[in-house]
Amino acid sequence: MPNNSESYRALALQVTCHAVNQASDGHEARSLMLNSINRLAPQIAASIAFIGFDCRLIVLPEYFLTGFPMGDTLAGWAQKACIEMAGAEYEALGKIAQKHKIFLAGNAYEVDPNFPGLYFQTCFILDPSGSIILRYRRLNSLFAPTPHDVWDKYLDCYGLEGVFPVAKTEIGNLAALASEEILYPEVARCLAMRGAEIFVHSTSEVYNKNLTPKDAAKISRAVENLAYVVSANTAGIANIAIPIASADGGSKIIDYRGIVIAETAAGESMAAFAEIDLAALRRDRRRPGLNNLLSRQRFELYAESYRQSHFYPPNTMLDQEVDRKHFLQTQQATIERLAKLGII
What we know:
Elements lengths: L6 E6 L4 E2 L7 H26 L3 E5 L14 H8 L6 H13 L2 E8 L9 E7 L5 E6 L13 H13 L3 E3 L2 E7 L6 H9 L4 E5 L10 H13 L2 E5 L4 E2 L13 E3 L5 E4 L9 E5 H8 L14 H9 L16 H16 L4
Parallel strand pairs: 1-3, 2-11, 3-4, 8-9, 9-10
Antiparallel strand pairs: 1-14, 4-5, 5-6, 7-8, 10-12, 12-13
């Protein structure tokens, strides 16, 4: 698709997550999710009216539909809080994207018929027609299944391009990073290898006026890859045992030079909006010189070290039922093995 919109505005919309943990069943949880979408609709409309109708990209926080599992089994959370790949929630969000002619990005827990009994934390992007144009499953998680846990079958189903998807759109080449994955440079790099220019980052994290590891990583990912980072944080998580403001504030947009060009404090806010200047980004990516780090990458230097190294193992959830203890047990076994090898 040709890239016609070389300058437009993006918004990291900071909204409160209304968790569904206390819902009695999946039916009640889905009703709560649709309530959240109904709350979003006027907020998005009003934000666009304030920012301007050249606001083409809106990113929503992590957990904005459900919150995260606390004490739920894998099967229980899948039944209660995970949406279907063509579910009513995507349809409702698609109508918002269609009405306002925007690209709408977010994050949800999702079931996949190819992997019964499991779920994935999924980043998605809807285009102005309301269609899903990108579906990225979080690859690094401590307490949730990932494609790496069923690696061989996942590759058979979706291929490597499905693991690292990039949507080439009229507003640039879009890719998604989920929450703490901003701390994993390899994920962003694999997306940049496929042309990603703008990382949409749905997160729910502690906000601090001091530089946090995640905020440092957001700047690093932008600089390393000459890419924008549009990072939307929650404005707190309601209806859950933790204090509501534990993950509240600091949504921001970082440009391809690593400069924070928009940021908001705590509370529900549309203040984190800024111009995305694709033309400038592309000029810098094509300009020879010291700062063009992307073009200076020598991947062959590192490929063999990655091939020879085995840290957290793949396929640990393939063809077997596990509970949440599995994740920490696998991590502990990994630590012990690496310690015996003298690596850590």
